Structure prediction request, 392 residues.
Amino acid sequence: MMKKTLLFHVNYFLAGGIEKVLIELLRALNPDKYRIILSIGFNFGEKEVRRNEIPPYVEVHHLLNHPLLVSTQKKKHTAKLNVLEKALAELVIPPFRKLTMRRQLSKLVAEADVVIDFDTTLAGLHDVFAHKRNAAYIHFSFVHIWSGNKRKANKLAHRLSKYNKVVALCDEMSIETATQYPFLSPRLVTIYNALNTEKVRQMAAEPLGEERLAGRDFVVSVGRLHESQKDFTTLIKAYAHCVRHHHISEALVIVGDGGDRGILERLTIDEGVGARVTFTGFQANPYKYLSRAKVFLFSSRYEGLPTVIIEAMLLGKHVVATACPTGVSELLMHGKAGILTEIGNVEQMSDGLNKLLRSKELQEEFEANRTAFLKHFDTGYMVKEFEEKIIG
Prediction:
C-alpha cells in the first residue's frame, strides 16, 4: 500500500502555541503510513527555536528564503519598523513574496495528496491546491481577533468556504464560527488538540535550576509577551493587588518572551512587586515551572484552544483564567474545574488567586472534576479524529 503524502503549512515556525500543537500532531502521525511535508512560509533562521522538535521523518521546506523577502517580516516580530522599512513591507515587497510563495508552493502541492493549511495563511493561494483534498485549521475567535476590522474577518471566512474542511479546536469555537458565518457550517469539524502526556510529565520532573526560586512558593503564567492578546498587564496588576490586599507570600514567575517584555518588567516595579516577579524568558521546557507552581494564571483577551491550560491541568495545577473566547470556559468546565474571571478585571483575578491559594475544599473539587475531562486530549483519540475527518 502506497503512503499518502500530507502537506502541512504554517507561515512562521517560532515558539507559539500553534507550533507546539503542530509538533504534537506531526509526532503522532505514523511515518510508515504517511509521507509528511512541512511548508514554512518565512525562513526566520535562528528564531525558529522549535525546529529541533520537528520529527526527523518530516521534510521541511521554506517558501521564502531570500533576505529581501524575509528581513522586514522578521524584524516586525522583534521591533518596530522605521518608515522606509514599513513602506517596503506594505507596498513594495508583498507582490514579489506572493509570486515566490505561489511558485514554491506549487512544487510541493504537486507531490501531495492532502493539503493542511494549519494557520489559515494559504487562504489567498487556495487555487494552487483546490484540486487536492484540503483543510484549514482556525486557532482563534473570529468574532474577537478582528473585532476592529470586520471586512478582514469576512474576507477570510469567505475564503475558508472553499476548503473541504475547516477545523475548529473546540465546540465553543465551532458554534461561534457557525453562528457568525452560517455558510461555513457544512465544512466545520471539531478536533481537540492532543498532548504527549508522557513527555510533558517527564519534562516536568527535570530540575528547575533556578537559584532565585529555590525553596520559594510561586504562582506561574506562561505565554508570549504580546499585550494585544495576552494582557499580562492585567495579570501583573492582579498579582500586585493580591499581595497588597490579601497579603499572599507566593512569588510570580512569568515564562515566555516577546516585544512587550520591557514594558511589563517596568510595570512590576511601578506596582511595587519587582523583587517578587521573575521573568524567565523563553524556555524550551516550561513544564518544570508549571509542575512546581501552586496556581496557574491566564489573562488572554482571546484564544483558540489554549494548550497551556490543558498542560497545567494535566500537571495537577489549579487555574485562574479569563473567560475569553474561545475554549477557556470549555476547558475549565464553565467554572467547575477552575476559576473564570472577566477579561481585564484585576480585582476578580486577584480574588480568584487568593481563593484558590487558601481553599483546600475548592482545590479538591476542581481536581475531581478535571480528571475525567482530560481524557479528551489523548493523542490516539486525536489522530483517529484527524484521519477520519481530514484525510478521509
Observations:
- The chain has a mean pLDDT of 92.
- The longest strand covers residues 34-42.
- The radius of gyration is 21 Å.
